[in-house]
Specification:
Residues 1-21 form the signal peptide. InterPro entries: GDSL, SGNH_hydro_sf, SGNH_plant_lipase-like. Belongs to the 'GDSL' lipolytic enzyme family. The structure is a single chain. The chain has 366 residues and is an alpha/beta fold. The protein has a single domain, classed as Rossmann fold, CATH 3.40.50. Helix content is 39%, strand content 10%. It contains 11 helices and 10 strands. The protein has helices spanning 4-18, 75-82, 116-121, 134-149, 152-160, 171-179, 184-208, 225-230, 246-269, 280-289, 344-356; strands at residues 27-31, 103-105, 162-166, 212-216, 274-278, 298-302, 304-305, 326-327, 334-336, 360-361. The strands form 3 sheets. The chain has a 6-stranded mixed β-sheet with strand order 2-1-3-4-5-10, with helices on both faces. It has a two-stranded parallel sheet with strand order 6-9. Helix 1 packs across helix 11 and helix 7 (184-208) runs parallel beside helix 9 (246-269). It is globular, with a radius of gyration of 19 Å. The two termini are 26 Å apart.
């Protein structure tokens, strides 16, 4: 029986050989956080304090750290390659003459949906270490637009033929609040504000001329070894049947329900725009539940971390890239790379799931 991952690969090979696809784009423009950053913190070389900028990050594809939080490529890399576009250059690239006309990536590690003042108003200002929230990323994109497409008329035409991906956003907002000691009851009250910020960002891009926009939801954070290790429980009823912490996955699920409702309202308002919901949650949960269906062996065990420690190979003081950590020799068999980010193999499956369905509604290649 063919696994889902193999089916996706066979599908892409058949499309490639035919030289056609249902959809084509002139460019891809991405906004987000560490799930999709392609190196905005490493444009002048990765800083020494950035664990994601140290080996063994990047070794499976690039042979070196690139600022991607994985052993290799991330979802936007696979989408760019599928549409025969260059890998998206970081928008902060310091290389003279970087060409952003075929794509740019505004995503940056640590990005939040909400601006700093929101966190300061909730006593969480010290939890935000990186000033690259969604509003700022949109400003970065606006600064690039003259080099991308010139005048307003030309820009609308170019952007209408481009694929936009806005997110995921929200994961770091919840991390900041939860790690900052806020109760989940309080964190739930932040969700509508975060959803409004995301949908407002989508509307801004639509106003600039975006027509095809993928808006991903957040991942099931209760399935990540970081959360499983820090907030482990002796009460088995706190876990679902897949070994994930229910209360954190419930928060992710609530975010995603409100996000889908927000996307629905935008669809009604902008009939000529194609809005797609990127369903990280469902696919990652299925990969945890049945890793072998996706060509994986391990769903909850970290590839790069504190090997042999705890139930998940995770230790917050020996994270991937830090002293005391080590990486598995077969990351292609793992879902989880470093405790909160996924492996290249997992991101490849997610990209194909977005292209063909059922993990993007509607699928990009619809």
């Amino acid at each position: 029986m063919l696994t889902k991952a193999v089916v996706f690969i066979l599908f892409l090979l058949s499309v490639s050989r035919c030289g056609t696809s249902w959809q084509s784009y002139d460019a891809i423009y991405n906004f987000g956080d560490s799930i999709s950053d392609t190196g905005n913190l490493c444009t002048g070389g990765c800083p020494s304090w950035l664990t994601m900028g140290q080996p063994p990050y990047g070794t499976s594809y690039f042979g070196r750290p690139t600022g991607r939080c994985s052993d290799g490529r991330v979802v936007v890399d696979f989408l760019a390659q599928f549409f025969r576009l260059p890998l998206l250059p970081p928008s902060k690239s310091k290389t003279n003459g970087t060409d952003f006309r075929k794509g740019a990536n505004m995503a940056i590690i640590g990005a939040t949906a909400m601006n700093l003042d929101f966190f300061q108003s909730h006593g969480l200002g010290s939890s935000i270490w990186n000033n690259g929230p969604l509003d700022t990323q949109i400003q970065w994109f606006l600064q690039l637009m003259p080099s991308i497409c010139g005048g307003a008329g030309d820009c609308r035409s170019h952007l209408s033929k481009s694929l936009f991906i806005l997110g995921e956003f929200g994961g770091n907002d919840y991390n900041a609040a939860i790690f900052g000691g806020k109760s989940l009851d309080e964190v739930y009250t932040y969700v509508p504000h975060i959803i409004n910020k995301v949908t407002s960002g989508v509307e801004t891009l639509i106003g600039l001329g975006a027509v095809d926009v993928v808006v991903p939801g957040v991942l099931p954070i209760g399935c990540f070894p970081l959360y499983l290790t820090l907030y482990g429980s002796s009460n088995q009823s706190d876990y679902d049947g897949d070994g994930c912490l229910r209360r954190f996955n419930d928060l992710s699920g609530y975010h995603n329900r409100l996000l889908r409702q927000g996307i629905g309202r935008l669809r009604s308002k902008y009939a000529g725009v194609r809005l797609m919901y990127g369903d990280f949650y469902t696919q990652v949960a299925e990969m945890v539940r049945s890793p072998r269906s996706f060509g994986l062996d391990y769903g909850l065990t970290v590839c790069c971390g504190a090997s042999g420690q705890g139930s998940y190979n995770y230790n917050n003081k020996a994270r991937c890239g830090m002293s005391g950590s080590s990486a598995c020799k077969d990351p292609q068999n793992y879902l989880n790379w470093d405790g909160i980010h996924l492996t290249e193999h997992a991101y490849r499956s997610i990209a194909y799931g977005w292209l063909t369905g059922p993990y993007c509604v509607p699928a990009i290649l619809h």
